[in-house]
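User: Fold both of these, please.

Assistant: Here is the first one.
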Amino acid sequence: MSQKNEENVDPAGSTVMFQKFVSENDEPQAPPRRPITPYVLAGAGAVVAIAIIVAVVVTWS
């Protein structure tokens, strides 16, 4: 008989209590990460510039 009563119990606790806990959580948010796209574009631009310089030197030599 006690098993039937345990089936009605929410194993995660009361949903209302959980929502209250989440809404009152004062944990600070992680600082936003800096975007990596500008660094990737700068690296790709440097590689292209070096390739152009090498092509010009090889062509005129």
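And the second sequence with its predicted structure:
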Amino acid sequence: MQLSRNALRAGSVTGAALCLVGVALIIVGVAGWQPLGSAPAWLTTLAGVVVVTGIATTVIFSTALARRARR
């Protein structure tokens, strides 16, 4: 199944937005708990998962968009 260029761009932007949400969660953790190791485990786990998911999504959609542009 081929996605349109607009769908690939939207996927890439969504991945970048997920990264920003993950970074915001990390900032909340750092601001609320000193040291960060004392932050709740769910917060640090959620932040890590969101950042990694955002990076992976951005890379996948950006790579597909670049391949599409080369054709």
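The helical segments are 5-32, 41-70.
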